[in-house]
Amino acid sequence: MDLRFSAAENNFREEAKDWLFANKPKETRPTDGEPMRAFDLDWQRRQYDGGWAGLAWPREHGGRGASLIEQLIWYEECARANAPLQGCLTVALNHGGPTLIARGSEAQKAFHLPQILRGEVVWCQGFSEPGSGSDLASLRTRAEIDGEDLVVNGQKVWTSHAHLARWQELLVRTDPAVPKHRGLTWVICDMTAPGITVRPIRTLAGHHHFCEVFYDNVRIPLANVVGAVNDGWRVAMSTLSFERGTGYVAKQLDLARAIEELISLARELPGPNGNVLLNDDEVAGDLAELKAEVAALRSMTYAQISRCQREAVPGPEGAIVALYYGELSQRVHRTAMRILGPQGLMRGGASEDLVGAFLHVFHETIAGGTSEIRRNIIGERVLGLPRVGAG
């Protein structure tokens, strides 16, 4: 691994640190609904006005054109400043926009990219379906060509922020007669179109981020197809080149901060023997081990980013980091619940945040691929194990 910061990169860090200190929102980000949407759009507009929007986007498309190391630095400083990240604009900034940059028409780029960068719109992703989550190519939502339109019928599920979104990156089946990867089409769907019904799903943490989306003869202009009809799988895969692992840096620093908060609470709360919890050898050992695991996770991420600087195509390390982060974050918050107990949980403040985080982290080993699927990827692409049933 070779990850050293140049003088220019250190200057970039100071610039980012100073700007975040002066411009990060002072108020707490709302956790749901229209207030959250308004907060995220306002924060994106503030970054746009300050020259920080579209950090990884090419300059010719309005972005910052930041290098991989500069992206890493930005996320580190965001985490240290406790500044919000992209929130409900994640799909627009990390998926929709980059896909249009790579595969979209000039008209699509001219219309959508400025709106995304200026913080004017929220996008959602219409990929997962009941029975077609991890095996995305098995999706069944149909789209038939009728004149100048696609007519869409079907259902999507786990569509984050669909109830707040203006546009959707939608993957539909346009040719059921060919192998499943070849009959898909990537299309821009107007979420205000007649025939769309959005039904929010309440999570364990009490939020309504996830939604079901139903399509009943929804008409989408063929001009909204990105790439070509029946070429949707290749279009969807093109966004992978824009995700190089830097986003996990902020999550890891947040996890490290949660451990430090837990250690602070353990210094104050009494244990069963009358001493503070941190004087208990088992508690102290558990917290030390978790702190070491977070440090190891960060080293793994740095190694991934170092490799991504040298190779054009992202390697399988992303699955390793995602798997380790998801399971470690659950261990951290499960330990927090065990250590704090009812007495600590009634204190509010940091302990209340840990409770909410505990409920939220269950999705880390489900969303974007379960732990089992990620282990399969690691087994096949890292260890070279054969696929079960493969000839």
TrEMBL record:
Keyword Signal in record: no
What Gene3D superfamilies does this protein's entry cite? Answer: Acyl-CoA dehydrogenase/oxidase, N-terminal domain, Butyryl-CoA Dehydrogenase, subunit A, domain 2, Butyryl-CoA Dehydrogenase, subunit A, domain 3
Segments forming domain Acyl-CoA dehydrogenase/oxidase N-terminal = 9-120
InterPro entries from the xrefs? Acyl-CoA_Oxase/DH_mid-dom, Acyl-CoA_Oxase/DH_mid-dom_sf, AcylCo_DH-like_C, AcylCo_DH/oxidase_C, AcylCoA_DH/ox_N, AcylCoA_DH/ox_N_sf, AcylCoA_DH/oxidase_NM_dom_sf, Mycobact_Acyl-CoA_DH
Give the Acyl-CoA oxidase/dehydrogenase middle domain ranges. Answer: 124-218
Cofactor(s) the record lists = FAD
- Location of the Acyl-CoA dehydrogenase/oxidase C-terminal domain: 230-383
Annotated TM spans? none
This chain's protein is named: Acyl-CoA dehydrogenase
To which protein family does this belong?
A: Belongs to the acyl-CoA dehydrogenase family.
**Which keywords annotate this record?**
FAD, Flavoprotein, Oxidoreductase
Keyword Flavoprotein (UniProt): yes
